[in-house]
Amino acid sequence: MFRLAPIALLALIPAVMTATAPSLLTWADLTARPQPRPDATIAYGDDDMQKVDVWLPAGKGPLPTPLPTVLMVHGGCWTTSIADRSLMNWIADDLRKDGIAVWNIDYRGVDRPGGGYPGTFLDTAAAADSLIAHAKRFHLDTGHIVAVGHSAGGHLALWLAARPKLPKGSPLRTATPLPIAHVISLGGLPDLEATAASPDNGCGTDVVRQLVGPPDTRPDVYADTSIPRLLPIGVPQDLVNGREDRIIPIRLGTGYEAKARQAGDNARLHLVPATGHVELVTPDTRAWAETRRLIRAALQR
Hints:
Radius of gyration: 18 Å
Strand content: 5-15%
CATH topology: Rossmann fold
Shape: globular
Largest sheet: 8 strands, mixed
Mean pLDDT: 92
Number of helices: 9
Strand order of the largest sheet: 1-2-4-3-5-6-7-8
Low-confidence stretches: 5-19
Helix content: 25-40%
Number of domains: 1
Structural class: alpha/beta
Number of strands: 8
């Protein structure tokens, strides 16, 4: 169940609005809604967080073709006590109603035994790769996966797409990673070095050190963890950010877009007005309508 730690909750509550500022959604506005449930849950490990929820469009009889599939990655500052996969239930259900299957993954955060480096990354990879093993059972299309990640999950979704570029010798490398055809990052934090240098981001800076490990553990803690170090990743990327997002500063989106484009990647930033951080994962918002349009377009390529 989605939850917010007390300290994190204070960090994520929108500031007092001025007379001219838009009224932004809070987490309570989202979580107060009736929560839809997935069609199935599978385990890819023994930990309670090593789970994937499967969302399947309703239908009768045999399906003529595999279902278009979105791989979804939740945020929460890479910290299990802040959020888990259920934060994405509302938009997963919205995609399910629109005929799209969702593979909504979870992973051990930096605050869990085995989380951090390399566990959080290995969990994310194993959860994604487990889609291949279960594709036939759920009739999922593995030939054109669109990865959608929110906040810290935006970083992890991009990292999944970048796995073929991981340095040789990295413990995060796998022989046959699930191919990702397109990534949509919603208020993401792809540049870990920039995040660690930005104390005004809603996750703080210490969590990055927890995620990548102390600098004395290996020569370069960002070489296989931060997306700019792996550019170009050769996958189209849409970055959707709220113009009024008080949790993820806009410069973290514009800065990454510039680096990705300079490296030769097809990266596009979509700034949504009158939008904060919560709107990005809330159905019936302008931000989610734009994201759903991008998902549809990506699946049809």
